[in-house]
Specification:
With 339 residues, this protein is mainly α. It is built from 9 helices and no strands. The radius of gyration is 80 Å and the shape is elongated. It starts with 13 loop residues before the first helix and ends in a 9-residue tail after the last helix.
């Protein structure tokens, strides 16, 4: 027996492939268990081999067509885990059950019978499949009739809906007509209002320009007034500066006069200091003379008799001396008062 070489990157080792091949050859009697076993090993081989190696292996090793291998594998996929329940069924029944064209309800019915140990023929499977097909057709026909009735009901509803829609459209048309008339009046009113607004905008713009001109003129006048006030303030400030300068000059002159007065006071003090000793002696003598003259004056005023020439002569001499003394006293130097 020759086996197709297995590539190094295959998941299953080559000896597993050889073992599966041998088992398939031993199970070619086609019992239900053998069919499931063959299908399981074929699935293993297909997964183990590289792409393009499986079909040549079927032809070379087993003289098996791809359709037959697919039937084996289909049975294994459907009943590999349910082998005990279907082991007594004919392989042809298993082929029918695993066929993609067999509805799932048919499979469930047959599987239920098989679990009870009942024998099932291929003809029974086909009959059940026909009945299910007819049931589906009847159901489809019933669904078509139901759809037709639904369509009729829907048509009636649509007619009613169309009537409602028509009435609604007529009402909408009437409402649209009224709305158009209202919009027309509104547009006309809006045009009038727009013209009034434009006129008001022009008036506002004119007022704004006048206000701006007035504000600019007022601002200019205010600036001129402020400048005039500032110039007056500056004149006053300059006048105050000149007045302050004059006061400073006056203070300087007064300061110089004060210095001169202070010097004069110093000179006067010096003179007073020098004349004090003369004045003291003179005053004592003048006091004594004044007392004596007072006594003489009282005595002369009290004379009641005539006196001799000698007395008159002494009196005249004394009178002359008094006159000379008065003149001399008037000539005494006087210390000038301090201004």
């Amino acid at each position: 027996m020759s086996v197709v070489p297995i590539k190094q990157n295959q998941e299953v080792a080559s000896h597993d492939v050889i073992a599966a091949t041998e088992r398939i050859k031993l199970c070619m009697k086609r019992t239900a268990e053998d069919v499931i076993s063959i299908g399981t090993d074929l699935i293993l081989l297909k997964k183990s081999l590289s792409h393009g190696e499986f079909l040549p292996l079927l032809e070379k090793e087993f003289a098996m067509s791809p359709r037959t291998a697919q039937r084996f594998m289909g049975v294994a996929e459907k009943y590999g885990s349910k082998c005990a329940g279907v082991s007594h069924l004919d392989p042809k029944v298993l082929y029918e059950l695993s066929s993609p064209s067999t509805p799932e309800p048919v499979r469930k019915i047959i599987e239920a019978k098989a679990e009870k140990g009942e024998t099932v023929s291929v003809k029974e499977v086909q009959e059940l499949r026909r009945q299910v097909k007819e049931t589906k057709a009847s159901l489809k026909d019933a669904e078509a009739k139901a759809d037709s009735a639904t369509l009729e009901v829907q048509t009636l509803k649509d007619s009613q809906e169309l009537a409602k829609i028509k009435a609604k459209e007529e009402a909408q048309a009437e409402a649209k007509k009224e709305l158009d008339e209202l919009n027309s009046r509104l547009h006309s009113e809006q045009s009038k209002k727009q013209k009034e607004i434009e006129e008001l905008r022009k008036q506002v713009s004119s007022v704004q320009k006048e206000a701006q001109t007035h504000a600019e003129k007022k601002a200019t006048d205010l600036v001129k007034q402020k400048l005039a006030e500032k110039e007056n303030d500056l004149k006053k400030l300059r006048s105050n500066v000149r007045e302050a300068e004059r006061k400073i000059e006056s203070l300087d002159r007064e300061k110089e006069q004060s210095r001169q007065i202070l010097k004069e006071l110093e000179d006067h003090a010096n003179k007073i200091s020098s004349a004090d000793w003369e004045a003291k002696s003179l005053l004592q003598k003048l006091d004594e003379l004044a007392r004596q003259m007072t006594d003489v004056l009282l005595e002369v005023q009290g004379l009641e008799h005539k006196h001799s020439g000698r007395t008159l002569k002494v009196a005249n001499q004394t009178s002359s001396m008094c006159e000379n003394l008065a003149i001399a006293l008037k000539m005494v130097p006087q210390i000038e008062d301090v201004k």
